[in-house]
Amino acid sequence: MAQALKCGPCLFEEVTVDPKHFCVDCLEYLCTACGRENRRHKTSREHKLLGEAELPQDVTLFNEMKKLSHCPIHHDVELDQYCKIHNVLICLHCLKNQLRSCEDCLDLSALLEQRFATENLGELIIKLKKM
């Protein structure tokens, strides 16, 4: 039998409320009030909230995706740099602390903007599928 989904912050306060949202960044189910609070706070304002029709029954996939996009050393920091010399994705902390001498590092957002500006999206998808 599948476990009933409940709002995480409300459960913490021992209140049982059905969720209406799922925060992809926090990996937490949220009721309407907690979803509103999530959007209200500056630190979570940009979080991606899924609606009631999109509530995942299992958060494993979201958890794995989060692990892939975050630094294995600095777990709370997203990978945002690419070192051409070492052919690795790194975070800004790693760049400053471990790869200071590397002069050929690129900001991922700038790299993606450049890539999208020069390639057709369809061609890019085909290339990504071949990788």
TrEMBL record:
<dbReference type="InterPro" id="IPR000315">
    <property type="entry name" value="Znf_B-box"/>
</dbReference>
<keyword id="KW-0479">Metal-binding</keyword>
<dbReference type="GO" id="GO:0008270">
    <property type="term" value="F:zinc ion binding"/>
</dbReference>
<keyword id="KW-0863">Zinc-finger</keyword>
<protein>
    <recommendedName>
        <fullName>B box-type domain-containing protein</fullName>
    </recommendedName>
</protein>
<keyword id="KW-0862">Zinc</keyword>
<feature type="domain" description="B box-type">
    <location>
        <begin position="22"/>
        <end position="52"/>
    </location>
</feature>
